């Protein structure tokens, strides 16, 4: 079974390379990865080298409560249910059954 990971790319001072490196690591390990964030360049770097069967980039501000539900629905539409949500900003998303990993100290 392939793990589906949602990686929320921070919009704050967290270095962009962290999201790119983490997405690439998950992809190399065979996961399907959806990245959500506002910086198109960072999102494309995060999924570079992997096709649409394994990687997706969704542009949007996951910190915006009004957009959150639509972004989560879009993420799920890419590969189905999420197994892992990696949230460096510790944003409260929804009642997803996925395990959430907060990377921020």
Automatic annotation (TrEMBL):
InterPro entries: NAD(P)-bd_dom_sf
Highest taxon in the source lineage: Bacteria
The name this protein goes by in its record: Uncharacterized protein
């Amino acid at each position: 079974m392939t793990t589906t990971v949602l990686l929320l790319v921070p919009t704050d001072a967290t270095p962009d390379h962290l999201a790119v490196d983490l997405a690439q690591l998950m992809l190399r390990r065979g996961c399907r990865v959806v990245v959500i964030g506002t910086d198109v360049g960072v999102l494309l770097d995060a999924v570079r080298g992997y096709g649409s069967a394994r990687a997706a980039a969704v542009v949007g501000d996951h910190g915006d409560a009004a957009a959150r539900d639509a972004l989560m629905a879009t993420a799920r539409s890419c590969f189905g249910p999420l197994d892992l949500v990696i949230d460096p900003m510790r944003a409260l998303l929804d009642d997803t059954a996925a395990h959430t990993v907060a990377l921020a100290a």
